[in-house]
Amino acid sequence: MRKAIIYIQCLLLLAFAVSCGTTDPSPVGIDLVGRSGGDVIELKDVRTVTARSRFKEIFPSVLGVAEEILLGRMNGVNYLSLYRVELSPTDFPSGSASGLTVDSLFIELSVLGNLSRGDLGAIHVFVPDEAWSEVRAFVDTSDFQASSFARSPLLDVTPALADSTVIVPLPNSLLTAAIAADPSSPVIEFGLAAADGSENFVVAVGSREATNQSGAPVFVAHYADGAGVTRTGVSLDTYFADREADPADGELLIQTGVFSAALMQFDLPTIPDAATVNVVELTMDYDSDRSFLSSLRLQIERVSVSGSDTTFALASGNTLNKQIINPLSSTFSMYLDQLMFHGWMSGEWENQGLILNPLVLNPVFESVPDLRYEWAVFSNPRLRIVYSLPPPIGS
After folding, report:
1. CA 383, CA 375: separation in Å to the nearest integer?
2. Contact 207/109 with Cβ under 8 angstroms?
3. Is 367 helix (H, G, I), strand (E, B) or coil?
4. Which of 113, 126, 338, 371 is 20 to 30 A from 264, alpha carbon to alpha carbon?
5. What is the pLDDT of residues 315-371, one digit of tens each?
6. Half-sphere exposure (Cβ direction) of 14: Cα atoms closer than 13 Å
7. What is the secondary structure of 29-76 as a DSSP string?
8. pTM to 2 decimals?
9. 314-347 in b/e burial notation, b at 16+ Cβ within 10 A?
10. Whose CA is closest to 48, among 278, 271, 378, 276?
């Protein structure tokens, strides 16, 4: 008799285990629904009807007090830096600039950690034709688009990378003209950008505000006939971004600073009114070589299009509508608000897509030491959707 009872208990345990199925992180509980007699349907590879990036505006942050400067071009955005060097008689080997002939001129920029992407390319040197300062925002705040900044081109140069230092040659005329204008206290201003036609690359270098001053920019001048060398820091530096082109087709660019969001619309099935969407998991391929970030704060919103008017709104108060993402591998997955998808799949709302919108922590013009442009590049979005049906009436 005892053996029979144990045998029946084992059968019950086995039946319970078989009914459990998979364990998805569902607020409803897929397993519970499954055990109650309802069906659980899993769709593993729901594809998009459309997926694209959407540039919005350029955030008018003041980057003159940031500890780093970005230089390069990536994802259709060129990052330009500006420098001002103010020299005094003590900066020259003999205490005077008179009689010195400039042999070569450089700016040395220290790479911060491993904050570089791509191979260092040609750099365009220019001079500013209008006044600037470290507290200027290079954005038209009426439309949040890049403001025009007058500048004159000088030449394209090939930088060198030595011991984590980017050495950028500058034209000797910069210093020669400055000495001619003011032999006692010459002032040099110039800017750097990625040269036209250069491959995508970006590098983060220390600014004059770097916590570790060994990473601050150094202006270097060598004089002819062994007359000596000038090595001095810069008095002002800042950087800004110019948007040049849209991201490539099929790429989803999410970026702060130069705001870019990811728009996507999926080919969703219909579900019965009584069904419940339990899990929606978004998976995308992540391009770490072309991304540059520590983490991104996202707000995920429902797209609504009426005529020519496109609006974005949260579908519910679900915490999944706001997330911090930090991709660590070539495949990135995140859970989405299942209530939003339930409304689409049940026909309550028209499915016009969703937007992964970057959030900004800092108000306009706020200067913070750790602010930078950051971005992530994704492609090939697809969904895994799990929904459940209630058990038949009378079961």
Report:
1. 22
2. no
3. coil
4. 371
5. 666 778 888 888 888 999 999 999 889 989 998 888 989 989 887 544 333 434 445
6. 6
7. -HHHHHHTT--EEEEEEEEEEEEEEEEEEE-----TT-SEEEEEEETT
8. 0.80
9. ebeebeebbbebebeeeebebbbbbbbbbbbbbe
10. 378
